[in-house]
Structures are given as C-alpha cells and as structure tokens.
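Folding follows sequence. Below is one example:
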Amino acid sequence: MPWPRGNAHQRGDLAAARTEFARALPLIRHELQPGMGVAVMKQNLRDAGVIASARTRHPTRTLDETDVAEVLSLRAELDLFAFRRAAAHA
C-alpha cells in the first residue's frame, strides 16, 4: 500500500495531506521531546524490526512500561508500513 500522505500531496489534495500529517503529529512530538525522544525513536525502530534493542545511554532516560504503552497507543491508528511489515515477518 502506498504512503497516503505522499499520495495525497502528489494528487494535489493538500487538505488530505495535512489531515494525515496532523494524525502523525502526536507521535512526531514524542520523538522530538528532549530527554526521551531518542528512547521513543529507538522503541519505534526496535518494534519495526530495524534494530535489536531500544536500550539508551545516559543522559537519555529509558522508557518504562507506561511510556511504551503510550508510544504503542500513538502508533495504533497510523497504519505505518514499517510496523505492518515487521508484524508480517514475525
């Protein structure tokens, strides 16, 4: 399945492209938070099967179970290709 944000933009449907981008903003915001953004990015990369461990080094804090649940919740409705691919290969 093609990437909907890119396709909407290529079709000239800027409103749909903005809507799709706005849906992803909470996850993007989490990935950019000082002190935990790297941990969120690494969690996403691990869940997508790109890296083996989401472990981080000081000063970045490690995500706890509540943080991981929040990341999963933010991703749940996005239908991101990398996570569909990882689930298919699991």
